[in-house]
Design a protein that fits this description.
There is one protein chain. By secondary structure, this protein is mainly alpha-helical. The protein has two domains: 1-42, no CATH class; 44-91, no CATH class. Helix content is 58%, strand content 10%. The chain has helices at 3-13, 33-41, 45-62, 71-80, 84-88, and strands at 17-21, 27-30. The protein has a two-stranded antiparallel ribbon. The chain starts with a helix and ends with a helix.
């Protein structure tokens, strides 16, 4: 089991997230919006920006053939990362 799979399994067992779907892409969701808000709010600004940048870059790499479909999400992640030029490319 990969480190990510182990962490996701732990969060699922703890009741914080749930498996939403497996196909066409694996997707987990927070069980409650308040849990998501608390988790997001507890991040330091620098960590939040770093994570948004990492997600944006991962989406670009993994889904290079679906960038138009993911444009809104990519724009948001790059904007939240403080990468306005990259965000602008997806608006």
């Amino acid at each position: 089991m990969t480190a990510l799979a182990h962490r996701l399994s732990h969060l699922e067992t703890s009741g914080l997230i749930r498996l939403a779907r497996v196909e066409p892409d694996l997707e987990y969701l927070f069980r409650h919006n308040l849990v998501q808000q608390a988790a997001y709010g507890s991040l330091l600004d620098a960590d939040r920006k770093r994570l948004h940048l990492a997600v944006g870059q991962a989406l670009e790499e993994i889904f290079a053939d679906r960038l138009d479909e993911l444009a809104a999400s990519l724009a948001r992640h790059f904007k939240e990362a403080g990468e306005d030029q990259q965000a602008l490319a997806y608006y």
